[in-house]
Amino acid sequence: MKIAFYFVGEDYINYLKKYEIEHRGFMTVPNVVYANRNKFCMELFWK
């Protein structure tokens, strides 16, 4: 199993949130910016 960690830009996250609300009516994109830290994204690959 390969694990990769990424920091996704705040502007791109906001774009995804807006797009999802406009097209689906609800949002599942998580917040990535908090008061004292940024949340990372994790990607898992199984063979």
Structural class: alpha+beta
Strand order of the largest sheet: 1-2
Poorly predicted segments: none
Main sheet, how many strands, which sense, barrel? Answer: 2 strands, antiparallel
| DSSP, total strands | 2
- The CA-CA distance between the termini, in Å, is 7 Å
Report helical residue fraction. Answer: 25-40%
What can you see in these coordinates?
The protein is an alpha+beta fold and 47 residues long. It contains 1 helix and 2 strands. The model has no long low-confidence stretch (mean pLDDT 83).
What are the defining features of this structure?
alpha+beta, 32% helix, two-stranded antiparallel ribbon, 47 residues, 21% strand
Q: What is the fold's blueprint, element by element?
A:
Blueprint: E1 2-6, H1 10-24, E2 41-45
Antiparallel strand pairs: 1-2
